[in-house]
Write a structure and sequence with these properties.
This protein has 122 residues and is mainly β. It is built from 2 helices and 9 strands.
């Protein structure tokens, strides 16, 4: 866990549907969007590190700049037609090109994405 200066964060709440991680992002008209190849494995790695392996949903905050108490960072490997490909601990994954093309998150894929995962308080 790291503590640094505050940066604008994007927050989604991934949840499982038929064993796959999906998320909603209503401003882009996205409902139950599955994470692309490699990203579910990354999520499982991060959740295991935080002893959250059995959660059915969680809060995922991410930003192109570091922010207080971030858990890790994804490093851009390559920008592909389907979406940017990032690496975390030897695992590579592709983020949804649909959202990047619509510029809802970032006009261009950042070199690094900082993230934090948290339990959703009931």
């Amino acid at each position: 866990m790291n503590k640094t200066a505050t940066t604008e964060q994007i927050v989604v709440e991934p949840y499982r549907v038929s064993g796959s991680w999906v998320f909603d992002f209503p401003p882009a008209g996205v409902i139950a969007q599955p994470f692309a190849r490699g990203i579910p494995e990354m999520l499982d790695i991060v959740l295991a590190r935080k002893h959250m392996e059995n959660v059915r949903e969680f809060r995922l905050s991410f930003s192109s700049g570091s922010f207080p108490e971030w858990d890790g960072e994804l490093v851009l490997v390559e920008t592909e037609p389907g979406g940017p490909r990032y690496r975390l601990t030897g695992v590579e994954g592709e983020l949804s090109g649909r959202l990047f093309l619509l510029n809802f998150f970032f006009p261009e894929p950042p070199q690094k994405l900082y993230f934090r995962v948290e339990h959703i308080e009931e």
